[in-house]
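FAQ

Q: What does a record look like?
A: Structure on top, sequence underneath. For example:
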């Protein structure tokens, strides 16, 4: 008889130790239950962690009206933990020829639906002209399933980035953010 290796041990104190391998939960709707913790503030809706996923997604150009710009995309990655979706993308060489100049620039193709309106993230760009006295760029995730690039700061109110703000063929926008999804 050969030697046997333990892959899992249940200790007398209740701890479970997995020496080698993965913990696999094979039925949808099940996961790791954290209900032993107390919620002292707010209203709890769930203590079950039942999703973790990571991968890539395909960012696609869109516009608020008219024709969309074109671009190359790289490093469009996501991680989903429970309902939180972390996304990032590098949008490069945005070509606005043939677009409606005043149409808002948008990105679609997000990996999961956006369930909470107006989730924001960070964005930065090169070869982009901010409108008026605005000084900052951010990304806003919309429940209509797109990411828009919002300009704010200075004395102007928040406004979306449009095709006129870009130097066609050389503008790049890099962004990352978090939104919630029930998918």
């Amino acid at each position: 008889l050969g030697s046997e290796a333990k892959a899992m041990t249940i200790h007398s104190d209740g701890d479970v130790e997995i020496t080698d391998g993965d913990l696999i939960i094979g039925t949808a709707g099940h996961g790791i239950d954290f209900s032993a913790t107390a919620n002292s503030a707010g209203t709890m809706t769930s203590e079950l962690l039942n999703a973790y996923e990571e991968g890539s997604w395909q960012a696609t150009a869109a516009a608020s009206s008219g024709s969309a710009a074109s671009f190359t995309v790289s490093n469009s990655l996501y991680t989903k933990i429970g309902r939180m979706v972390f996304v990032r993308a590098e949008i490069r060489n945005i070509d606005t020829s043939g677009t409606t100049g005043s149409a808002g620039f948008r990105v679609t193709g997000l990996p999961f639906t956006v369930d909470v309106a107006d989730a924001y993230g960070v964005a930065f760009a090169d070869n982009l002209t901010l409108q008026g006295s605005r000084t900052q760029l951010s990304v806003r995730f919309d429940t209509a399933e797109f990411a828009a690039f919002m300009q704010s700061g200075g004395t102007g109110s928040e406004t979306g980035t449009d095709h006129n703000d870009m130097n066609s063929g050389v503008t790049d926008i890099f962004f990352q953010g978090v939104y919630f999804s029930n998918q």
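Q: Is there anything notable about this one?
A: DSSP finds no helices and 14 strands in the chain.
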